[in-house]
Amino acid sequence: THIAESPGAAGSSLVVDGSGSTLTTVDLRVGVAAAGSLSVLNGGVVNGGFLIATSAGSEGSSVTVDGAGSRVNGGVTVGFQDRGSLSITNGGVVASNGGFVGGGGFCYAPCLPGDPTGSSVLVQGAGSQWISTDFTGYPGSGTLTIGNWAAGSLTVVDGGTASSTGGTIAASAGASGSSVVVDGSGSTWTV
């Protein structure tokens, strides 16, 4: 499933809204050649990880997981090749096996390298969670990397929580300036 796969598709969106609404997919790319968005709302569920801003020109692509019962299950890369954002709010949950913010892996067709500097994740509000666990048999695969090869940020506020089996901030020289902020009563990142 590819959202905004051509330059003329800027602003394309996919919405999974309401309890009982489920999208099960593989290779979910949010923003390929232009900015696109995915919203998981009011108890909607997405099974399958995602890449946000997968190629040059997709700057500003975003995923929102909002509301109690709203959930995404799968791998997470925010700002694969261009700047993207993920917001987990009002009791939404993202459950992944690891995650990257600010630069993904190999740029494969139809990818064109861009600049993911400034990619961000927000976890806000009581019950909002980013949970990252290991793949069975692969210790440490649940690590969250905030700033892979470009600067990224993680902000956990107002009672939101993040948990992972490992944590790395600024994994390379190119990720200088990466940051993590945990602020407010009940807000935690457990590593």
Rg computed from alpha carbons, rounded to a whole number of angstroms: 15 Å
Q: Average pLDDT, to the nearest integer?
A: 94
Q: Indicate the structural class.
A: mainly beta
Spatial arrangement of strands, main beta sheet: 1-4-7-10-13-16-19
| Secondary structure tally: strands | 21
- As a percent range, the share of helical residues equals under 10%
Low-confidence stretches: none
Task: Indicate the overall shape.
Answer: globular
Number of discrete helical segments:
0
Give a short account of the largest sheet: 7 strands, parallel
Strand content: over 45%
User: How far apart, in Å, are the first and last alpha carbons?
Assistant: 32 Å
H/E series: EEEEEEEEEEEEEEEEEEEEE
Set down the secondary structure blueprint.
Elements: E1 2-3, E2 12-17, E3 22-24, E4 28-30, E5 36-41, E6 45-47, E7 50-52, E8 61-66, E9 71-73, E10 76-78, E11 84-89, E12 93-96, E13 99-101, E14 119-124, E15 129-132, E16 143-146, E17 152-157, E18 161-163, E19 166-169, E20 179-183, E21 188-190
Parallel strand pairs: 1-4, 2-5, 3-6, 4-7, 5-8, 6-9, 7-10, 8-11, 9-12, 10-13, 11-14, 12-15, 13-16, 14-17, 15-18, 16-19, 17-20, 18-21
